[in-house]
Amino acid sequence: MPTKNDRGEKLNVSPGEAVGVVAAQSIGEPGTQMILRSFHAAGISSIITTKGLPRIIEIVDARKKPKFPMMRITLEKGYAKDYEKVRKVWRKLEEVTVSKLIKERGGFSEDLGARIMVLNLDKERLHTYEITPSQVASRLKKVSGIEIGMDGMEIRIKVNGTKDMKLTRQTFVQIRKAVVSGVPNIEKALVQEGQGGEFYITTAGSNMAAVMDIEGVDKWHIYSNDIFEVARVYGVEAARNLIAHELFETMSEEGFTVSFRHPALVADAMTHTGQIRSIGRHGVAGEKESVFARAAYEETVKHFTNAGVFGEVDRLNGVAENILIGKQISVGTGMVRLAVRKDELKKIKAEE
Amino acid sequence: MVENESRCNVFLSGKYIGYVEDGAKFAEEIRRNRRLGAVSGEINVAYNKKLNEVMINADRGRVRRPYIVVEEGVSKFTDDLKERLARREIDFNYLLRRGVVEYLDAEEEENIVAALRPEDITRETTHLEIDPAALFGATFNVSVYPEHNSVGRHAISANFIKQSQGLYATNFNSRYDARAFLLYYPQTPIVDSVAYRKLRLGQHASGQNFVVAVSTYYGYNMKDALVINKAAVDRGLGRSVFYRVYTDEERRYPGGQQDRFRIPAPTTEGYLGEHAYSKLSDDGVIEAETPVIENDVLIGKTSPPRFLEEQTSFGVVEERNRDSSTTLRAGEEGVVDSVMLTETTGATKLVKARVRSIKVPEVGDKFASRHGQKGVVALIVNQEDMPFTKDGIVPDLLLNPHSLPGRMTFGHMIETIAGKAGALSGQHFDGTAFSDTGKNRVDAYGSILEHYGFDKFGDEAMYDGRTGRQFNANIFTGVVYFNRLWHMVSLKLQVRSRGPVQILTHQPTEGKPRRGGLKFGEMERDALVGHGASLLLKDRMLEQSDKADIWVCKNCGDIGYLDHLKNVPVCMSCGGNNLERVEISYAFKLLLDEIKSLHILPKIRLKSE
Questions:
Q1: How far apart are CA A281 and CA A295, in angstroms?
Q2: Residue A288: exposed, middle, or buried by beta-carbon count in 10 A (0-12, 13-18, 19+)?
Q3: CATH: 3.30.210.10, 3.30.1360.140, 3.40.50.2000, 3.40.50.300. Which one for A96-181?
Q4: Distance (Å, whole) CA B408 – CA B413
Q5: b/e map of B136-163 (b: 16 or more CB within 10 Å)?
Q6: Annotated active-site residue in B22, B131, B224, B283
Q7: pLDDT tens for residues A15-62?
Q8: Which residues of B touch A (CB under 8 A)?
Q9: How many CB atoms sit inside 10 A of residue B49's CB?
Q10: DSSP B141
Q11: Which residues contact A326 (CB under 8 A, 6 or more apart)?
């Protein structure tokens, strides 16, 4: 019976195993079966994320911002089970702009000539976010060049700073977009109950740096699907883990089981330089050492002309270039070489 | 256009022409006049309630179908008219003129309530189908029992019927179709339909009535494979002739030169050797009834050289014609059926040679019933090894039972019983859609079968031909009309071990006519890399493809050549003789050459292993 150590050793890949190709095939084959659809079940109490093949493409292409950024915030011990405390954290999260607080119909009126804007606050909306009209007003005081008058639920704004109509209009827009409370970029937050009665919060939109500072948030357990943000806040190694995990999870969600080592290898290939590179011609494939390998992939002419201009040398170390010229590739059985100890050989010859 | 809600806009062939107060009434008025003959019967009018618009269509290209007009819940096609039509006193056009029948287009159909059968007519009904089968259209109605099959099978079946071999034209003997198939003994189906008879397809039958047993045979008819009876094949089952016409003409070229039909002289460029031309007669064209095999020349022809004035070392311009003969296709054989000599409109000689070959059904040939049930012959069994019934009936074909439930082709099963009943009683049956209920049909055929001492559901006790033992289960047996389709192995089979290569890349050619190989593509390459099978990969990509030996200069890195006279390698760049033989793919050498043609000099640096 194998001991624990033997089993671990069995998991080692053999020398010369073409791990890259195997990883590519292991992810690519189920990819062909995934349906290219990006529609989502329209539900109120859920956060939308990209799923399936579109998400995989998004990760592999190393897009700067995911189409639907999302966070999962775990709370500290004292908070997690107390709904009221969780609500308090939640209130600090969601980004509330002025336009979210005014009435849906007739929430504001503008007079560009007189440079007057009237905001009509909605009582119910103020209540859900627990914001008072004076809070809104005090936030608006930060906007320069305006004069504020309050009358119950009505806020009258007069622009004094300029007489230019265009600038006035910009100010009006600025006022409506002004964030009254919450974390910037977090469009929506939801409290959800996990197993064991512990609450956690999911958000649409991601801003890890800001969320970390909120009291009650367990800063060691914040999850975001924004790879570049994770790289900024926690570093590339975290981003590498995220890439591998996101790839693995997206495939698992679609019902495809892949060994974690394949997505992990992809993540390594994308991040080992310290930068996040995409897989295509602008990233990993485009930065290969061999001229022939790059030319064989995409933009053949570009690579050959550059090679000609700069006098590049192809050392024929990779797989693609060796297939091209017809040499044995140094993968698998092809990487084994016969070594001869010349001194020993001389001895044999001498004996003869 | 009037944007008033109460007013109804009217469009003629898509163009706005005005408005009316009540669109529905207006449309009805036009229809009434059309039925009276005051308005052309080619006009269709539709009232769109949602948009409150009337569309009058008189443009071309509308697909229209006829309906019987129903007014006040009474069909205008009265019994009296029916009788007179049966007596041929009146015809269809009479009914059209009288407004009994009218053609509707897709748009007007939105306004009607059509009944499928006369008994379905209610107060709301405005139209009646001429026949319930009409909903399938002309093509599907050729098939039998279409109402018992799933729609998908119909589409598949329609494709198969197009591919079936039969008597495609009665003047086939004087025709020179590029390719043609003729079935040896085409039969009229035992079960047919009204449309089939009306189109007189029985006179151009494209199939035969096969005795079919729904049974397995030692796994030889798994999936869609078929097992057929060798004795039946020997008797002519599914046997057909394949004609292929080879055409060539004497083309004229600028400069007064022209092609010539003749046996090329041995000095001709591209001369195929004396043997290839041995079957030609003096005029350079083959004689009828000559047996021919692949690469035999059918039409000998020479063409003027492509480039003029190729000077020889003596300074004399030598006219060397090219051979441009037509040869029999690779992998084919047959007998020259007939040869035709004529002229084109451009007054050049034109030759057409028709080659015939007999195609006996063999393993790999394709058959299909009229219900989208196709299969490929996987085994031809000697009659004595086939299952047989107590009467000694041996089926022509064994169909796998698994092909029936999943595809839901009940029509196929009804045809099996009907065909059997028809064969026993010597009568044809009608399988027109909706002409009767399935139960009535099965009952009627069942009673005939019982009358002849068979099981009414078509099951029969059968005996294993190999052991002589009776099978535990009774086997569903009957007669089904099968078509032989023109996908045959003999026209597709292709092999290559060595063969021609492309001039440019030195890689093997592609495709059957060029005796090509099968592509070992990128994904296949990746699979070998993934397995780490680098020596197998090298074999595929290099040894079996475009291996080339080149000489590389150790001084300057350029490619040189071997001077065979002195047996010394030479570098043309630096003039040195210090070169090394290197094995590379010709494609790479070509790439280097192409880069050189762009005034970039690639150099190869060698490293000793």
A1: 10
A2: middle
A3: 3.30.1360.140
A4: 10
A5: beeebbbbbbbbbbeeebbebbbebbeb
A6: B224
A7: 899 999 999 999 988 888 887 655 555 554 566 777 888 888 899 999
A8: 525-527, 529-535, 537-538, 541-542, 546-547, 583-585, 587-588, 591, 595, 598, 600, 605
A9: 11
A10: T
A11: B538, B541, B542, B546, B547, B583, B584, B585, B588
CATH topology of domain A288-335: DNA polymerase; domain 1 (1.10.150)
The DSSP line for B84-117 is: HHHTTSS-HHHHHHTTSEEEEEHHHHTT--EESS
Q: What is the amino acid identity at position A116?
A: I
The reported pTM is: 0.74
Tokens of B169: 């034209």
- Classify domain B146-239+363-484 by CATH number: 2.40.270.10
* Cβ density class B289-305: b for 16+ within 10 Å, e for less: ebebeeebbbbbbbbbe
The CATH number that domain B494-543 falls under is 3.90.1800.10
- Do residues B16 and B31 make contact, with C-beta atoms less than 8 angstroms apart? no
Longest dimension (CA), chain B: 108
Angle at B562 between CA B559 and CA B568, to 5 degrees: 115
Q: If chain B, 609 residues long, is cut into consecutive pieces of 10 residues, what is the mean pLDDT of each piece?
A: 68 90 91 91 91 91 92 90 92 91 92 90 91 82 90 89 91 93 94 90 92 94 94 95 94 86 88 89 92 92 75 60 89 93 90 95 95 94 95 95 93 95 94 90 95 94 94 95 93 90 93 89 93 93 92 91 92 89 93 90 83
Between CA A216 and CA A73 the distance in angstroms is 10
Interface mutation target, options A313, A333, A336, A342, chain B, most CBs of B under 10 Å: A333
The partner residue sitting opposite B532, judged by closest CB among A324, A326, A331, is A331
Q: What is the ipTM for the molecules in this complex?
A: 0.77
Set of chain B residues whose Cβ sits within 8 Å of the Cβ of A300: none
Contacts 24+ apart (CB under 8 A), B522-525: B525/A323
pLDDT value at A166 more than 70: yes
DSSP A43: -
- Domain covering B547-596, topology: DCoH-like (3.90.1800)
Determine which of B507, B524, B536, B537 to mutate to test the interface with A (most A C-beta atoms within 10 Å): B537
The CATH architecture to which B8-135 belongs is Alpha-Beta Complex (3.90)
